[in-house]
Amino acid sequence: MSHPLPADEAEALFGRMLDGGMDDQAITRTLVTMTERGETAAEIAGAARAMRARMIRVAAPASAIDVCGTGGDGHHTLNVSTAVAIVIAACGVPVAKHGNRAASSKAGAADTLEALGLDLDAAARTAETTLGTIGIGFLFAAAHHPAMARIMPIRRAIGRRTIFNLLGPLANPADVSRQLIGIARPDYVPIYADALAQLGTAHALIVSGDEGLDELSLAGGNEVATIRGGTVQMSRVEPALATLPTAPVSAIRGGDAAHNAAALSALLAGQAGPYRDAVLLNAAAALIVAEAAPDWQAGAARAAEAIDSGAGRDLLARWIAAAR
């Protein structure tokens, strides 16, 4: 595995892993070697195809998008992408939110939504329905990727990042064709974007804060790749594009699920500050991807209106009530 694999060979290899055709030692050796030399776009795309072939799919509106990050950035911030999902759904853009419990942070999307009162088991069962009626659904990764049960103990034993940390956003069970994906490695943005282009996407943004944040950062600059029609275009994005101020990452430091849920509730109630600004910046990106806003400034303004009108808070309440 010291040499890079073509996409079709990578897909076959990861298929064997997921289907139980490789022993633990061989899987460990493969994953560690691949990580140490650096995964290629073809390998990421091939591995993602293997996961997609084995996932449990849900139907979603054709206009549905996903907003999520790869995690693992080590900054332990408040749940930005979860808040963005609620806000843009309140703007009328259906969101198939693919997520899981925390792996390295104190509170993942699932943990925080549960602390807000969302019954995760019910939300998973009703995701297809709530996507169509309310405009949002939570696709609990563990429920839609049963083949990953074979891999999880091996990943825990390895105890470090592997290619599987990159694959979650590329295997959304709703087969969304529009995405905002944050990754924690700015240098990997073009490689990851190339992988998504190979997988086919209508419109996507891959973003990474300069400090290794797996979302658009207020702290300064961001590496951004725009994928559309199989082409990738790199750019730099700063908060000023959305008429937003800068703020250090420490200003949106999170805590446990209860802490993050309280912050998200306050945000939806209209509380100003860096958390709101971070959500507005990322929501603007998501609305651009959904073609629901023409530019960063208009996107941030539309997201702010969804918060200040109470639409975001109302949507969350309806979602919690529906997932029973």
TrEMBL record:
EC number assigned by the record: 2.4.2.18
Residues that bind 5-phospho-alpha-D-ribose 1-diphosphate: 69, 72-73, 77, 79-82, 97-105, 109
Keywords: Amino-acid biosynthesis, Aromatic amino acid biosynthesis, Glycosyltransferase, Magnesium, Metal-binding, Transferase, Tryptophan biosynthesis
Pathway named in the protein's UniProt entry: Amino-acid biosynthesis; L-tryptophan biosynthesis; L-tryptophan from chorismate: step 2/5
Enzyme class: transferase
Positions contributing to Mg(2+) 1 binding: 81, 215
TM segment ranges: none
Bound cofactor: record note: Binds 2 magnesium ions per monomer.
Any GO molecular function: anthranilate phosphoribosyltransferase activity
One GO BP annotation of this record: L-tryptophan biosynthetic process
Function: Catalyzes the transfer of the phosphoribosyl group of 5-phosphorylribose-1-pyrophosphate (PRPP) to anthranilate to yield N-(5'-phosphoribosyl)-anthranilate (PRA).
Entry-linked HAMAP family: TrpD
Family note: Belongs to the anthranilate phosphoribosyltransferase family.
Protein name: Anthranilate phosphoribosyltransferase
